[in-house]
Amino acid sequence: MKVKLVTFAPHPNFGTCLQSYALNYVLRKMGHDVEFIYNGRENPPQPFIRTAIKKCLKLFLPKSFIANIKAKRKKKVENQCEEPYVLQLPNHPFLYWLSKLPFYGNVYKMLKCRNLQWRKVYKFTYEDGNFNMRRIYTHRQYGEVVADADLFITGSDQIWNPFCGGFNPMMFLEFVNDGTKCVAYSSSISQPELPPSVAPRMKADLQKFSHIAVREQRSVELLGKLLGRNDIKLVVDPTYLLAAEEWEAFGNRAEIEFEVPERYIFCYFVGDRRTDVYERMVQDVKQFTGIPDVITLECYDGDLNYGGGRLYKDAGPYEWVWLLRHASYVCMDSFHATVFALKFQKEFVHAMKNADTETGSQNTRMYDILSRYGILYKNYNADGGNDWQQRIDYAHLIPLIESEIKDSMDYLKYEIEN
Fold first, then answer.
1. Which residues pair with 182 in a beta bridge?
2. By the 8 A CB rule, do 320 and 121 touch?
3. Strand partners, 297
4. 133-168 pLDDT, tens digit each
5. 237: closest CA among 89, 104, 75, 401?
6. Which of 70-79, 186-195, 324-333 has the lowest mean pLDDT?
């Protein structure tokens, strides 16, 4: 079956990379011909020339100056944005024309691979045989994709969270209007409520989906109410669907540029709004475990380091998995780092990425996974409590997770075949 997979394209957020890899891998393993569809325009629509100028300026302006501008702009957006912005399906005939030129691939790679981390992500995405990528530039190409598809699947991650990069019509398959089958697997809203400004459009878009499976119980409830359906299914993230041994083999492809300590604390923080909490948490873990070595992986070319340890800015997806797999303890604010810690049966502590009252807070997904497995005590509170030090009873937890994985895999097969 020709399956078109639509989710966030890989970039240096390793959860994003690995959830897209996992679903693509599982679908291929089932024997399907999988093509990853993306448009590369997940930012608010803006003129191409303006975008090109901004990229050129980044090459010449000091990083500290750019970081200061971004911080001021981010704060302004946070103060003003109570409702999500809405993206458009891009239409860039000029870019499409450029993509047909013989030198375009090399130029694109040069611009994309601006540092070692991006070179690793690029290699993982385009050169290692992990994906069959197809970029969409024009409205006409959407029609070509639809004509070539037996089935569309919207994948995992927060593709339906309108505060995560905006309300993206690509992720709701607004370009599929000919009756081609559409299903969702582990798509995430990750919000306690649906914003009124986009709920009607979301409802209209999701009418075409014959099966909908989501990642959080709250998403089940919200979509059930929105659509008047009682068949919305709760499933696990696709990263669960690979066995620990498969992920271990994946991580063994890592190329780490330094000598890794025998025992270390692995840190992975996607957010940057609670850095004081993160630092306090890492220091508490160092004291609790007696482990002095800390390795922090940076995913957005930042300079945030924790626990006085090593900041590793050159990691790609393989290095991320390997370092988490071999860590003695894990500190994170990341959903997918939590999934992998559970997959590898690690001891960990998690800090919420946002304040619960923050507009667009993504904490719903974390409360869901920690509560579902009875390990909410692993959520770090900055009030001095030590509940997070309690060990996880994996002998009790693993059978529950394995049952969910089997149920989710069965449902994925069902929604494809029925």
1. 152, 209
2. no
3. 268, 312
4. 999 999 999 999 999 999 999 988 999 999 988 999
5. 401
6. 70-79
Check residue 362 and give its pLDDT. Answer: 84
Determine the angle formed by the axes of helices 244-251 and 317-325, rounding to 10 degrees.
120
Q: How many residues are listed for the chain in this entry?
A: 418
Tell me the two tokens of residue 232: 């919305």
pLDDT digits (tens, 9 = 90+) for 262-286: 999 999 999 888 899 999 999 999 9
Cα 225 from Cα 200, distance rounded (Å):
12
- The lowest-confidence range among 257-261, 309-313, 353-357 is 353-357
Q: Which two tokens stand for residue 297?
A: 């992986």
Confidence of residue 10 (pLDDT cuts 50, 70, 90): confident
Calpha distance 393→81 (Å, rounded): 42
> Are 55 and 111 in contact, with CB atoms under 8 Å apart?
yes
DSSP state for residue 9 in the 8-state scheme: P
* 204 exposure class (CB count in 10 Å sphere: 0-12, 13-18, 19+): exposed
Sheet holding 233-234, edge to edge: 133-135, 33-38, 2-6, 151-154, 181-187, 209-214, 233-234
